[in-house]
Amino acid sequence: MSNQPVLDVNNLKTYFYLEKDVVAKAVDDISFSVYPGETVAIVGESGSGKSITALSIMQLINKPGKIVDGSILLNEQDLAVLKPRQMTSVRGNHIGMIFQEPMTALNPVFTIGSQMTETIRKHKKLSKKQAHEKAIELLRTVGIPRPEQIIHEYPHQLSGGMRQRVMIAIAISCEPELLIADEPTTALDVTIQAQILDLLLEMQKKYEMALLLITHDLGVVYEYTDRVMVMYGGQIVEQAPTKQLLKLTKHPYTQGLLSSLPNIDQDMERLGTIKGTVPPAYNFPKGCRFSTRCPFVMDRCKESNPALTELEKDHYVRCFLYDGGDKA
Amino acid sequence: MTLKTTESSQFEATKEVEKEILIDVQNVKKYFPIKGGVLKRTIGHLKAVDDVSFTIYKGETLGIVGESGSGKSTLGRLLIRLLDPTEGKILFQEADITHLTQRQVRPYRQDMQIVFQDPFASLNSKMSVEQLIEEPLIVQGRLDRNQRKARILEIIEKVGLRPSDRQKYPHEFSGGQRQRISIARALVLKPKFVICDEPVSALDVSIQAQVLNLMKDLQDEFGLTYLFIAHDLSVVKHISERVAVMYLGRLAEIAPKNRLYENPLHPYTKALLSSIPVIDLDEDASKVKREKIKLSGDLPSPANPPSGCTFRTRCPQAHERCAIDRPELREIEEDHFVACHLYDNK
């Protein structure tokens, strides 16, 4: 693993200006890096800001949303200062993205082939015929049977798993350094999910990409990723190498998430719960954003928001429970 | 030692006798016609549920798992007669409800309710919570206005909503709260049997746990029988006593949950279980390392299922016979039923 990150996000803030005086702080001051060949997960519930983080990296935030602060460096190139045309070339050539619902990401009125050759020709100087051949080769790489035939079909003729394979083929067609997968298997059945995740890791190895996997499924995180960031209320609350985070969980939110999962190996009469619901992004509590649901809440949690601090090597936590004491 | 086993088996046997059958499903089929051509003639059938038989005992939770297109939701709808079966028999407390008209089936609806997956789509956004919960009581027409109000208040507290929530509308609630409204709406009639069709799959995990706990509490309190349909195998295991696995409209396996999860017999069940990503932190410990069986390919179309065993096209252990003969669901061990030719000689 080289020491130069592919992606370096610093103090990113993406706000949505909903109405006068109503600002949804969807992503609020997050910083992280992704290194070449690494698989990093962003975990969180709906509304935690994980998808907005991905869209911010891709510079796909539209009004009323806006990246208000921070920098996003891709191979030391600041994406925020790029012109739309330059950014178009970055997307695809340097960052590939896979979305949750392949049916909405693919255009229903064009064949698989025409959508693939369009992408390939936009980024590579190839003739129509060469692009067509390249598309067939890519479909074969992602494990689609009879690619010569499938290339002439429309998205609706394929199953969900096959469509997601096509999305992966398009995303890797220009061999990007970074692949962002936003809940790539949430809409798929469990046996298909296993196929798609295996394929993603295989492609990652083959093309030596860094993979940023956004998911809500901690089982997927455990089996497929190296490092994990847990998001809550637009901020990272805990970050560590995957096994360490799941074994030596520090943040009460992460602990709550883990205890609320039904365990397939153990019988439990009752599941652990986190009381209440995620507060909306335009109305976070003062102080720690988890303070309204936290079982260990203290007075100071309601007053100020703790900083993300390194507790052990590579293990970062945003919580006052670990403040002072042995750390100080 | 020997004595002990006989004693316990005798005890189990007496328990068996006490098990009262609530619903008995016999060879039920549901074929949807596929229309085509200019004259919209029937050109084929989609076999959503194809010859399924099982029983549901009083007070238990039977889980049904399967991938999308396996027919699990159609089966649920058949049981409470939201759909008409093409063939077969459905007995509810020994009464044959298979061919009742919608009017005739209405009295039974008091005892059979359903909770749907999407609490955003299944609640009328123009009705307040009180109206939503009152509607089934009005349809059944057994209580007067004051009794209805009292019943609503009672159920609202049972599902963990506030009395002041009665005047609110569905859009004012989060997904988890809406699912509580759906549950209140199903339980206000004090049913005996509730079908839960993916009730938590639209919810975040922390909210999912709240709703699952609530459903268990309500089951204990009201002595409910659940048919719990879901694609998430760990959720099904958590809530069920017995689990049935469906594949392409047929039952592949049905067994008490621990036996099914610890010793799955059908190759499909094995593959399904091994594809779930799990957090297995003591992987070095003595525990049996889960063998990963990855299935290739997709679910075939139920309009044109493979001959013989419908799973054979994806089965790692398929042999010649699987293409010719359809395996019947047979009891291999006590209470453990499998439809697979691998166990023909047992």
Question: What can you see in these coordinates?
Answer:
The complex is a heterodimer of chains A (328) and B (346). Chain A has a single domain, classed as P-loop containing nucleotide triphosphate hydrolases (Rossmann fold, 3-Layer(aba) Sandwich). Chain A contains twelve helices and twelve strands. Chain A has helices spanning 50-57, 84-93, 102-105, 112-123, 128-141, 147-150, 160-172, 190-207, 218-224, 242-247, 252-259, 299-303; strands at residues 7-19, 22-34, 39-43, 65-74, 77-78, 95-98, 178-182, 210-215, 227-232, 235-241, 309-312, 315-317. In chain A, helix 4 crosses helix 5 (128-141). Chain B is α/β, with parallel strands linked by helices. Chain B has a single domain (18-266), classed as P-loop containing nucleotide triphosphate hydrolases (Rossmann fold, 3-Layer(aba) Sandwich). Helix content of chain B is 34%, strand content 23%. Chain B is built from eleven helices and twelve strands. Chain B has helices at residues 2-18, 72-79, 102-109, 129-140, 145-158, 175-187, 205-222, 233-239, 257-262, 267-275, 320-324, and strands at 21-36, 41-57, 61-65, 87-92, 95-96, 112-115, 193-197, 225-230, 242-247, 250-256, 330-333, 336-338. The longest helix of chain B has 18 residues, at 205-222. The radius of gyration of chain B is 22 Å and the shape is globular. The model of chain B is unreliable at 1-16 (pLDDT under 50). Chain A binds chain B through residues 45-46, 159-162, 189-195, 197-198, 216-220, 222-224, 243, 246-247, 256-265, 267-274, 277-278, and chain B through 67-68, 174, 176-177, 204-210, 212-213, 216, 231, 233-235, 237-238, 258, 261, 271-273, 275-281, 287, 292, 294-296, 298-299.
